[in-house]
Specification:
Number of helices: 4
Strand order of the largest sheet: 1-2-3-5-13-12
Radius of gyration: 26 Å
Largest sheet: 6 strands, antiparallel
Strand content: 35-45%
Helix content: 25-40%
């Protein structure tokens, strides 16, 4: 075989391989796009959010995986989801999702804006506005009969179906005092009563979803969830 002929064959092989690679890539992107559209449509029907829904397939060759019944890892986000008289921004990250609606489990977050946190604090938040600093909830405003300006720092803890806001310190007129020490100060017993821990139940969770964490972020109170392996959870607890 002459060198010219061998050279032409190599060129043909390279061109063929490049064409196949391009076709595979195009097919993968097309299938992936259509799969993401289906995920978005299903999430929109289940969650009925006010805002947009986005879905991303994060596994390599995610589109081609669907041809074999596998979707891979999926991240779904939705803004403006109504739950428990609140509006949340929700994100779920699921591992090894299949086209039958099963997954290997995952995690999720729900973010509640501080304006809504302030409204839901009840007696604890009377006269105070919620915010966040270094993961702790910070309440600022005025309390008591004298309307003293205060800053209250609170820690957050969780159980599987509730989170608790526990005030730890209060700063009044430049002096920071532990909540437990308020009992020994004159005219502060009423303030201590107002700053008792408050527990907020998190209900209507789908089957297999449990609350695992809570922290105060820059844009709101962020609740973290674990998602058990099995049917992908939906708003009503059924498989997506």
């Amino acid at each position: 075989m002459t060198s010219n002929r061998r050279g032409r064959i190599r060129v043909i092989l390279v061109a063929t391989a490049a064409t196949l690679a391009l076709l595979t890539c195009a097919t993968d992107l097309l299938v992936e796009h259509r799969t993401e559209e289906r995920v978005v449509a299903q999430a929109s029907r289940r969650l009925k959010p006010q805002g947009p829904v986005h879905a991303d397939l994060t596994s390599p060759l995610a589109g081609l995986r669907t041809l074999g019944g596998e979707v891979g890892d999926v991240e779904v986000s939705a803004k403006g989801v109504h739950r428990q008289h609140a509006v949340l921004d929700v994100t779920a990250r699921l591992k090894d999702v299949t086209t039958n609606g099963d997954s290997a489990g995952g995690t999720g977050t729900a973010t509640l804006g501080y304006d809504q946190v302030t409204r839901r604090l009840g007696a604890l938040g009377k006269g105070l506005t919620a915010g966040g600093q270094n993961g702790d909830l910070v309440l600022t405003g005025s309390v008591g009969r004298l309307g003293l300006p205060v800053t209250v720092r609170a820690i957050l803890s969780t159980t599987a179906h509730a989170f608790t806001i526990t005030p730890t310190t209060v700063s009044v007129l430049g002096r920071s005092v532990a909540i437990d020490d308020l009992a020994g100060l004159p005219a502060t017993s009423g303030l201590r009563d107002e700053l008792r821990p408050r527990t907020v139940a998190v209900t209507e969770l789908p089957h297999g979803v449990a609350l695992t964490s809570a922290h105060a972020a820059g844009d709101g109170l962020v609740l973290g969830f674990s998602i058990a392996a099995g049917p992908t959870p939906s708003a009503g607890g059924a498989a997506v």
